[in-house]
């Protein structure tokens, strides 16, 4: 292997997709991302999929109402990914972090984005469902893990996640200055 090929390999951007939804799984995901040792050229893409409202919705025959629901969902999603970005960037400002909200089924959106960006890793939460609930609602993380073109880190919620606050690491620059 030549020095040029080593330099090209080391300068390659390492893309990580962080898939979030509006669940309690966000805190453990943020905790994982801020405490993981990333390569210096890591790009973190925070992704949220807004599920389309189906025609079996009781108000589906009212187009203005449906449009309003979709706008509200998108607005909420934009605020959600912006908050997650802020929470991460506050602790690890040295990495490029972007956000994206995409309409579609979550597993499909995540998998398509991973292929499009040639991601090296997908970070996704698990709600911890089992039995009939998992059967009825499905498992986005399970589908993503089974079909992803890259590695997948499934971050599980801790028991009593609502009671525990994730620990945050002190950025290296702050620690050195004290």
How are the SSEs placed, and which strands pair?
Elements: H1 3-11, E1 14-19, H2 26-35, E2 42-50, H3 63-91, E3 96-103, H4 106-117, E4 121-126, H5 131-137, H6 140-147, E5 151-156, H7 172-177
Parallel strand pairs: 1-2, 1-4, 2-3, 4-5
Question: How would you describe the overall organization of this protein?
Answer:
There is one protein chain. Helices cover 46% and strands 20% of the residues. It has 178 residues and is α/β, with parallel strands linked by helices. The protein has one domain: 3-Layer(aba) Sandwich (Rossmann fold). It has a five-stranded parallel beta sheet, sandwiched between helices. The longest helix is centred in the middle third of the chain and has 29 residues. The radius of gyration is 18 Å and the shape is globular.
Summarize the structure.
The protein contains seven helices and five strands; from the N terminus they run αβαβαβαβααβα. The chain is an alpha/beta fold and 178 residues long.
For this structure, what is the CATH class? Answer: Alpha Beta
Q: What characteristic shape results from the CA principal axes?
A: globular
Q: Could you estimate the helical fraction of the residues in percent?
A: 40-55%
Order of helices and strands: HEHEHEHEHHEH
Major beta sheet summary:
5 strands, parallel
Unreliable spans: 1-9, 132-137, 160-178
Annotated CATH topology: Rossmann fold
Structure annotation, total helices: 7
CATH superfamily membership, which one? HUPs
**Alpha-carbon distance between the termini?**
43 Å
- Can you list the strand order of the major beta sheet? 3-2-1-4-5
The number of distinct β-strands equals: 5
Q: What structural class results from the helix and strand content?
A: alpha/beta
Q: What is the beta-strand fraction? A: 15-25%
Rg from Cα: 18 Å
- Do you know the CATH architecture? 3-Layer(aba) Sandwich
Number of separate domains: 1
Average pLDDT taken over every residue: 79
């Amino acid at each position: 292997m030549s020095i040029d090929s080593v330099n090209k390999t080391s300068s390659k951007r390492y893309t990580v997709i962080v898939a979030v939804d509006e669940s309690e799984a966000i805190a453990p995901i943020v905790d994982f991302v801020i405490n993981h040792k990333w390569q210096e050229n890591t790009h973190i893409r925070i992704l949220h999929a807004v599920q389309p409202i189906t025609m079996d919705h009781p108000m589906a025959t009212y187009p203005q109402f449906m449009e309003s629901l979709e706008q509200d969902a998108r607005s909420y999603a934009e605020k959600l990914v912006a908050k997650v970005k802020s929470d991460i960037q506050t602790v690890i400002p040295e990495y490029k972090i972007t956000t994206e909200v995409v309409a579609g089924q979550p597993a499909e959106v995540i998998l398509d984005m991973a292929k499009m960006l040639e991601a090296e890793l997908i970070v996704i939460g698990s709600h911890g469902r089992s039995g009939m609930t998992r059967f009825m609602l499905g498992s986005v993380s399970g589908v993503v893990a089974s079909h992803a073109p890259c590695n997948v880190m499934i971050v599980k919620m801790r028991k009593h996640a609502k009671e525990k606050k994730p620990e945050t690491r002190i950025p290296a620059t702050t620690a050195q200055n004290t």
